[in-house]
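Spend some time on the protein that follows and explain the fold to me:
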Amino acid sequence: MQKDGTKPIDFKYNLALKNRIYKRIQKNKKPAFIRSWTIAASIVILLGINFYSLIYNKSFSFFNSQDKIALILKETDLNQQVKVSLPDGSFVILNGESSIEYPENFNDTIRLVKLKGEAFFDVTKNINKPFVIQSGSIRTKVLGTSFNIREAKTTTEVVVHTGLVKVTSKEASVFITPNQKVIYNNKTNKLYKKEVNAEVTNLWWKEEVVLEKIKIEELAIELQKLYKIPFVFKTEEIKEAYFYSLRLSKNETLDELLVRVNFINEVKLIKNNNMVEIVKK
């Protein structure tokens, strides 16, 4: 007989109920180290996202505070080329229908400019103050080097002449060295790297360039831009051929170029109406 007046059946029922509650609590209860790792992983992910967002948007926020910083805008008309000197001693050559925007004075941490169109950059070296160009959807970051940027409707191209350049989109970053090019595709948001002859991209602003070795396909692209006429290959295999020791002058007429190229090379350029056909001899 129970002294406290509790019946044996009630005691057994209460004990069973407590056991079921305890088991349910233990089932839903995660070990402490699992909870700790889950919390830590969440913090790392959030910090990573915030850090990337901060770094990527740092340069873009600069141009949103024009009321605080005096900006200079240089623009060119069609077929006009202008040399622009920047506050740090760097210089830029703007191609036709292009513009560059930059502060009257660079701040203490970054040299930031905004480009539309095409320009050749020769950047004064400063390892403590990176030089950053915003062009379309990509950023090009250097410390001191020379390179060409061309922004078109569907692509943006960066070609390096000297030094090391970092090109960054919202999805990826690519490092390129002399005679390499990065192409950013606006539709796919992808960066593509390839080997090129960087000197040929100087033809639009230099009076003359000498090319030791260049693929015919690469040359045709630049000649199309220079002479404003399509260069068409009759067969795909010709694109892989090379020109060796070719001199190009910006002031040379198309007819003069065709005569000279056809005399010394294994391909033939034929002017036909409003295009130039490239055929094998």
